[in-house]
């Protein structure tokens, strides 16, 4: 595998088209932090399989088109070359390209906002990266989340953007699910578990989940293992707390914890017993935040996307290297002085 | 014109009252980024004309009073003298002073919160400026947006602050406007276009729109041109996407794109073909964000104010000079170490 | 009193258990900025008194358990030792420990999220501190607010987390309270005033309010005086604006202004006539923001917690030492250049 990868990398140095393909594949791979074109190929396969299986080929087209548009936009903006070649400007685009056709109905207006959104996702990536670098932290998938929220929420204001599967907007209300989880048998649990990794790409399909896990495995055993464990922890915690069975079995409590587990457990910290306990706390908290945000976005009739992962992972990465808060004492220099 | 301006500037050096007037007029001008007292005079005229035409003289009084209170607050806080003299502490105040009497009914409680809000707008301007300067970016009109949201949202909690024109709070729901835009004739389109610049000041009046454009023209042909084009782009995109005709014809899809077009096209970047394409992308995206935020604030029963402009312009300004995101790799120094 | 405190401090140097107790008591005291174990003891007494008086002993247990868990988590993460010993990692935990059992019904799931939340509150404290230190500002109680929002909002998604007293979610609607405030007699006003300081700890009990004020007095006369004045200002402004009498008499308009008054008036700025006027403006604005946020969180069916205090105090602290905004002029270096 790694021989083939070396050969491929050598080839991309000579062939501009291969190099462009490589950048885009790495962009897909970076959705779960992997700078690896083969991983990206598996991830795209997971999207395409899910799109075909559900009869929504526009999702597969949207993903590829948005990935390319986001990457080309980055080239036009003369971004950092190393970051570009690692696929750092593709992963938000590909997710925008999946989200828009999944939630909104096919049509000219849908493709128009998909193209605008894919280009804008690169601008937002630059903006969020600039802010987060202040604290040595990554943008994560927040550019995708923010851009997609703006795109799909507009469907409630624009008559030519009919909604396919989203909403309706509703006030949150208490759920009575006591005892319902006993209804799940082992097969259902297994399929729900596989759908966690698949839903990172908004795909509700267990085969896609296998493709995602295999795609991780060809790049990093730690990443694949932590993704699998993260999905299992999410399944256990969400069932124990009595989450909606429909949401749990569709993998909708799994995708953010998968990302948190991989990100905290082996990407931004090197795996160790201490780090794994820390990542476990973050993964469990991500399940709680997923439940909270499901209620939080309900009055707007939009999905959370990967925001629970983003917020929790930021909170768990930011403390690094600065463990001293501002004391509860005087600010330096008193109230506004006369300017000199 | 520029001779008269020079004479006026010379006069303000000798006369303290003229100087104070000059600062306040520049404050009004800075609503659309113009450090020019004549522009400010036109903008105030636009507000006053609109207020009189709709029989709401309290809006004109509120604008002037809040402008002065915000400026005086800045003086009392010993802010940077150059920024003060450029009117940087007036533009949020004047907008607060228009927003409160437009949305809430006249009365002692309304004037109380208007005065508090005008003073606070200067504090918020300082706070937001401090944060945004970390990334060499301006506060834009976010101090106005944030302060006014806090002021008018409170009307739902305080019985002595009756609402004049705002809300009611409602969940967003899909709109069916297909085909309705064909109903607009050329005159209606022309008036809707003029109301875009007017609604920057929350004024629903085409004559005020002319005054705003002329006010820009006396200061900068680029600014006037980009405002006109921005309003036209917003009209075209919002109609093409099937936005509410009532909102479009009132200029409510135009004011934020006007500000984005001017800000990105000629204020914060120097106009060039490359910059204009970038500004166009930002202007189109502002229309999408306006639609999204209209749905987003609906459950709270408040307007978006200029938040779509602020968020998009920040996203399009922040990338400057730092085009390298944090990689998806290890943080420096591992997990929390023992403090030394 | 100060002799006893010195003796205690000396004892904590020799006895590890006493030292741990001291850290936790200071953690409770830091809820209102006091690095003082006796103050913390009074604050815990206020919580316990209120819990027993309302027959909810789980609130008292939750407060103590969460305080200890948050402190121990800080120790395990090797945080800055001085900050730890000042109780900077306890105050958010103790508030999480009060909030969860107050709003959610007793049960295994409630205790599970309380423990997770208490540990996470320390991580969030580190994260928020890191961000706010960029501008030399403190985290305030935002870690408590954010963590608790995530915990209790999830109750709408998790069937095993029944709600005890929160919500229901509702759209904001205009209030008609004109004239109702005349119904309050002097005793009712007095009790409402005392409940302001008590509600800092989510306790609806006037005796607890006395304990809080006395706890402040043993540490700082300024803090006690400003808390008392802040509660009185909040009472006057909220009644004058026609706020809900039920909310006013429960102290729900008082707790955030109390914190703002103490924080701005004597903790982060040294008291002076100039500072006190500034703190008064902040305190009055906090009442307006409390009203706004009550409406703002209504569609989610959650409380504001101390967010009004946090947002206003940040806005009033941030301007310090940087009173020059970015001008409305060109960004440095034009649009994205070719990277070198």
From TrEMBL, chains A, B, C:
Annotated signal sequence range: none
Membrane-related topology note: Multi-pass membrane protein
Top-level lineage group: Bacteria
Major location category of this protein: membrane
Membrane-crossing residue ranges in chain numbering: 36-53, 59-77, 111-128, 140-158, 198-218, 225-246, 275-293, 299-318
InterPro entries, per database record: Ammonium/urea_transptr, Urea_transporter, Urea_transporter_bac
Subcellular location: Cell membrane
Keywords: Cell membrane, Membrane, Transmembrane, Transmembrane helix
Family from the record: Belongs to the urea transporter family.
PANTHER family for this protein: UREA TRANSPORTER
Name used for this protein in its record: Urea transporter
């Amino acid at each position: 595998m790694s021989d083939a990868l070396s050969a491929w990398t050598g080839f991309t140095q000579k062939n501009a088209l291969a190099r462009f393909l490589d950048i885009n594949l790495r962009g897909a791979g970076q959705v779960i932090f992997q700078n690896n074109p083969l991983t990206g190929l598996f991830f795209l396969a997971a999207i395409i399989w899910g799109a075909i299986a559900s009869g929504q080929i526009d999702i597969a087209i949207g993903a590829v088109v948005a990935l390319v548009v986001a990457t080309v936009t980055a080239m036009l903006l003369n971004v950092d070359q190393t970051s570009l070649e690692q696929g750092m400007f593709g992963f938000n685009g590909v997710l925008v390209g999946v989200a828009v056709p999944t939630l909104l109905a096919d049509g000219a207006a849908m493709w128009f906002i998909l193209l605008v959104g894919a280009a804008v996702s690169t601008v937002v990536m630059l903006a969020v990266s600039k802010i987060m670098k202040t604290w040595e932290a990554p943008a994560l998938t927040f550019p995708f989340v923010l851009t997609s929220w703006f795109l799909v929420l507009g469907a409630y204001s624009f008559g030519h953007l009919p909604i396919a599967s989203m909403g309706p907007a509703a006030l949150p209300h208490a759920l009575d699910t006591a005892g319902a989880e006993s209804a799940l048998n082992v097969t259902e649990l297994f399929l729900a578990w596989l759908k966690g990794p698949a839903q990172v790409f908004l795909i509700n399909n267990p085969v896609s989940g296998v493709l995602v896990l295999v795609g991780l495995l060809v790049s990093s055993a730690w990443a694949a293992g932590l993704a699998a464990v993260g999905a299992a922890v999410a399944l256990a915690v969400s069932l124990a707390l009595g989450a909606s069975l429909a949401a749990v079995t569709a993998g909708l409590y799994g995708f953010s914890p998968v990302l948190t587990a991989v990100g905290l457990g082996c990407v931004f910290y090197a795996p160790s017993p201490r780090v794994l306990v820390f990542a476990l706390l973050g993964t469990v908290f991500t399940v709680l935040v997923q439940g909270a945000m499901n209620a939080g976005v309900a009055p707007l009739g939009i999905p959370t996307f990967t925001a629970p992962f983003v917020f929790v992972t930021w909170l768990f990465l930011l403390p690094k290297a600065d463990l001293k808060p501002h004391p509860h004492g005087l600010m330096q220099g008193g109230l506004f002085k006369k300017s000199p």
